[in-house]
Amino acid sequence: EIKKLINMKKHNCIWLLLCWVLGINTSCSDKQSSTEKQEQGVTTVLPDAKNEVTVQVLKRQNFNHELVSNGKVNARNKADLRFETSEVIARIYVKNGDRVHKGQKLAELDKFRLEQKLSQSEDALLKAELELKDILIGQGYSVDDFSNVPAETMKIAKVKSGYDQSKSQYELAKRETGHATLTAPFDGVVANLFSKAFNLANTSEVFCTILDTKGMEAEFTVLESELAFIKKGDKVMVLPYAGGGSFEGNVSEINPLVDTNGMVKVKADVNGEGKLFSGMNVRVSVRRNLGEQLVIPKTAVVLRSGKQVVFTLKDGKSMWNYVHTGLENAAEYIVSDKSQKGVEDGLLEGDTVIVTGNLNLAHEAEVNVR
Fold this sequence. Notes:
- By secondary structure, the chain is α+β, with helices and mostly antiparallel strands.
- It is 26% helix and 36% strand.
- The protein is built from 4 helices and 21 strands.
- It has helices at residues 2-45, 112-138, 151-161, 163-178, and strands at residues 51-57, 60-75, 78-81, 89-92, 99-100, 105-109, 181-183, 188-191, 208-211, 215-223, 235-240, 247-254, 263-271, 280-297, 301-304, 307-314, 317-322, 325-328, 332-335, 352-356, 365-369.
- The strands form 4 sheets. A 6-stranded mixed β-sheet has the order 15-16-17-21-1-20, with no helix packed on it. Strands 2-10-13-12-11-14 form a 6-stranded antiparallel beta barrel. It has a 4-stranded antiparallel β-sheet with strand order 3-9-8-5, with no helix packed on it.
- Strand 16 (307-314) and strand 17 (317-322) form a beta hairpin.
- It is elongated, with a radius of gyration of 45 Å.
- It starts with a helix and ends with a strand.
- 21% of the residues are buried.
């Protein structure tokens, strides 16, 4: 019986050892199969494909240097209109936003008091004129011709008769009556009209404002270092942040003073086409033609270790070129020209430049041109 027990233990140990060996083999085979599957999956997900790029042949072309600044547009012609006498507003003919023409009626006061005052001052002037004639006749001068009266004598006679004072009061009453009707001083748009009819006019406040929205003026600032690139007459493009398209203009004024922040104020005449509002915030782009230059799109330039690099196409491969960029506008750079003496990093006219698909390129990588 003891021998049987010993034999059974031996058989059990051998059986356990075999199971353990088989388990290791199975797990190894499972690991190997899983590794093969992963490698196959990676091969499937990351195929060995060429980079697709677009290219452009480098040529000399006209380059428009561009300065960009923020500013405001205001009406070049602006008139704040107000009544000169405090009378009841009889009629208002326009409202805010109405386009008016030069001389068009805007509003008028009740003229009864003004017309009575004008009539009284006219009578007083006639009386003073008769009194002046009596004084001069009394001094022996002819009533038909006072041209021979000495200036000093005429001055004393006008003071005694009250002629000058009466004439002044008449002219004032005539002016007040004439200005009881407000008219547009030029073609424009009505703004800031808040008064109501049948109320007293407030002579200390502006009744309304007339803006010439066709003749607008953009005011913006440029850096002191940028003054060399801007001059009177340069073309500008004005783009309102509120939308509505862009508007052309020309630099009209450069203030010859640099402020404490190193900025210079510039003004440009802009044809607002009646679509710009006075006080609008705008983006101003000043453009100046610098003649023919080697110009590349900004997308062609990438950074590698902090240096500017442009890839060119040669025999189906991307070639690495260090470059230096100069002046720029919204879409383009002037690039260094290797044909010039002393320039080592740059490009040559006629090079085929890779302009897109270049972010992950390496030197002599095979590419497909779209």
